[in-house]
Specification:
Order of helices and strands: EEEEEE
Strand content: over 45%
Number of domains: 1
Distance between the termini: 36 Å
Strand order of the largest sheet: 1-2-3-6-5-4
Organism: Hyphomonas oceanitis SCH89
Number of helices: 0
Pfam families: PilZ (PF07238)
Helix content: under 10%
Radius of gyration: 15 Å
CATH architecture: Beta Barrel
Protein name: PilZ domain-containing protein
GO molecular function: cyclic-di-GMP binding
């Protein structure tokens, strides 16, 4: 297997040209279809103001649009975010937050 890495520039910064900065985090939640059926559990790997990267509990194909229900750290509160699938590779998925003004806060 060959692994390719992007090299940092002279300042040591990442070469990624992203609109929003990503923040690493670990939050658990679940992915639900628009008709309220549970698709799979998931963990948030990182998040930005526009979307997130999720690690799915099972590599099920996700629909184009769905709802992510994130549990609070205390487990008492659930935050729901309407999302759109941007990419998926096996059990990893990139999502875009679609709800106006929504952001899955930490």
């Amino acid at each position: 297997m060959i692994v390719l890495k992007k090299l940092a520039d002279e300042r040591g910064a990442s070469p990624e040209n992203r609109r929003y900065t990503r923040t690493k985090m670990t939050r658990t939640g679940s992915i639900w279809s628009l008709d309220q059926r549970l698709i799979t559990r998931a963990s948030m790997v990182d998040m930005s103001a526009a979307g997130a990267c999720l690690e799915l509990a099972s590599p099920k194909p996700l629909p184009p649009r769905f709802t992510v229900r994130l549990e609070s750290r205390s487990g008492q509160k659930v935050h729901m975010v309407h999302c759109e699938l941007v990419w998926q590779h096996e059990a990893m998925a990139g999502i875009l937050f679609r709800e106006a003004g929504s952001k899955a806060t930490s």
